[in-house]
Amino acid sequence: MEKRSNKATQGMARAPHRSLFYAMGYTDEELERPLVGVCCAKNEIIPGHVELDRIAEAVKAGVRMAGGTPIEFPAIGVCDGIAMGHEGMKYSLVTRELIADSVECVVTAHQFDALVLIPNCDKIVPGMLMAAARLNLPTVVVSGGAMMPGHLPSREPGNPYSDKNLSLTDMFEGVGAVASGKITEAQLKEMEHCACPGCGSCSGMFTANSMNCLT
Residue 159: what pLDDT? Predict the structure, then answer.
């Protein structure tokens, strides 16, 4: 079966195209292989994305081992948790469509043969899945995984969160607990530093985690 990418890499008329590939360091052998797009949503503003580049490196190594040529490209993303409560949240859902559109644009414009998607969190996972459905190419989704629960080590009497596992959900509840007088602002501050212990999609029953689990 003829590779889709031949439209961009093969034949005399594609000499200009190949010269641009050579500018990036690709070899003739690499251009003969299937071109596999690797869309990695790594950024430094979403906890679920900060280490996706490590997954991307493993994915690219696997593609090479299987006889393909991996070509990485990025995707944008918004952290719903950080965008919440101000005008930033108006932009969250919009990014799902932008992600779907941009992945479709990059893959079609460069005629990739297959695709590996590396997303995480609320709108990024569905945005990439929408693109995969539109493109109808062999596609693998490797999601970034969930954040581990935090833990508040304090055994302070009267604090309902003392010596318990925490998640982002508890932080939202904690704001209400301060407002109702159940805990103090100082206790909430202590929770802030314990609730989200590292990278991953925020633990809780919302799309950041449910989309991650589904993929």
Answer: 84
191, 151 contact by CB (below 8 A)? no
Contact status, residue 208 vs residue 201, Cβ threshold 8 Å: yes
Q: Strand runs (DSSP E) across the chain, as ranges?
A: 35-40, 69-74, 114-118, 139-141, 150-152, 164-166
pTM above 0.90, yes or no: yes
**In whole angstroms, what is the distance from residue 178 CA to residue 190 CA?**
13
Which parts of the chain have pLDDT scores under 50? Answer: none
Please tell me the predicted confidence (pLDDT) of residue 140.
98
* Among candidate residues 87, 125, 79, the one with its CA nearest the CA of residue 103: 125
Indicate whether 210 belongs to any domain: yes
Tell me, yes or no, whether 84 and 132 share the same domain.
yes
Instruction: For residues 157 and 131, state if they share a domain.
Output: no
DSSP state of 159: -
